[in-house]
Specification:
342 residues, single chain, 13 helices, 6-stranded antiparallel β-sheet, 3-stranded antiparallel β-sheet, alpha+beta, 51% helix
């Protein structure tokens, strides 16, 4: 076994990790563990070993996209490194799949720091400026889904109706289920209203144009997907890449930031402004962004967590989040009102 260092001193690296990094041609200078991940330092490079729950073909397609972004000038991205067998996926003796990624001496975007948030937003706009006309071989395109939020909302609304019926049919209801029934009609009406708002907007037109122009979204752009240092802003976690309307990525970042900052209007406006300074939003995009924010997606996700979890248990965390969500509705509506003004 080799030794690796962390902030607490030296300890032994598990055999299963050595099985992974020994599959790569690396001039290793140092290995350390941080937050459950293995980091490998060469003289001028830093890498990370991460679990990977997709196929080799998915990894290949993801890396084709990343390499195009690098060719177009976006260098700070977590490209995958092939192993000695000329594949991206490596396995340990337990059959667990891993990948080796290029990494950065940077910290995750601080969701409570406005300057960090603005950098993340500006970085997203920069990405969107180059994530256009992404044309690939037909086989690779098979592994890039299409993100149509209109179809998603239609499916989400049906799910809400299904959950309501399921709870109503239960003879004995727990506290969480009683709480859900108390709120579900209100949120369902909102969900239907904003689904129709999106349907009557120019979203479908923008979506059709995005597909025709081969525009790609990050798909999961939150503070977890941005690493920031004095020297770089790097983007990671591209496993949800999809063809679609770019504004969806801005919504993902904005919603998460607003939820974590008590729907602070000033922070939300500065985030949008930082994006707009690099990639100007159209009037259609502004309207669609408001609809995305207004749609009760957080409630829908909580309901989904309940419905797909163990029904015999009351989830205290879901109940807490539900109460928090209800209490924040006024602040969310205040933010939406401010967006309409601008």
């Amino acid at each position: 076994m080799k030794q690796i260092k962390n902030s607490m001193g030296v300890f032994l690296l598990e055999d299963k990790n050595e099985q992974i990094y020994s599959q790569y041609k690396l001039d290793i200078k140092n290995i350390y563990k941080k937050r459950g991940f293995i980091y490998i330092e060469e003289k001028d490079n830093l890498y990370i070993i991460k679990p990977y729950n997709y196929t080799e073909k998915k990894a290949e397609t993801e890396n084709v996209i990343k390499n195009i972004l690098v060719e177009r000038g976006y260098k700070d991205i977590d490209v995958l490194i092939k192993n000695n067998f000329d594949t991206y996926l490596s396995q340990n003796k337990y059959g667990n799949k891993f990948v080796l990624k290029k990494w950065f001496l940077a910290e995750e975007c601080d969701i409570n720091n406005i300057e960090s948030i603005k950098k993340a937003s500006s970085n997203l706009a920069q990405l969107h400026n180059i994530m256009v006309n992404m044309v690939f071989e037909s086989e690779e395109e098979m592994y890039i889904p299409k993100k149509n939020v209109l179809k998603d909302y239609e499916a989400y609304n049906k799910e809400l109706k299904r959950v309501k019926k399921y709870i109503n049919n239960k003879k004995k209801k727990n506290r969480l289920e009683i709480e859900i029934l108390k709120n579900i009609d209100i949120y369902y009406k909102e969900a239907e209203y904003y689904y129709n708002k999106l349907k009557n907007s120019n979203y479908q037109l923008l979506y059709d144009m995005a597909i025709k122009e081969h525009n790609i979204c990050h798909g999961n752009y939150t503070h977890h997907s941005v690493l920031i240092s004095d020297n770089c802003v790097a983007t990671i976690n591209f496993d949800k890449i999809a063809y679609g309307v770019h504004i969806y990525d801005l919504y993902c970042l904005l919603r998460k930031v607003m939820e974590k900052n008590d729907w602070n209007i000033n922070i939300g406006l500065q985030l949008i402004e930082a994006y707009n300074d690099t990639k100007m939003l159209s009037e259609d995009e502004k309207e669609i962004l408001r609809i995305f924010i207004a749609y009760p997606d957080k409630f829908r996700k909580l309901i989904n967590s309940y419905y797909n979890g163990k029904k015999s248990l009351i989830s205290i965390r879901i109940s807490e989040k539900l109460n928090e969500l209800v209490n924040n509705e006024i602040k969310k509506k205040d933010f939406l009102s401010e967006l309409k003004k601008i």
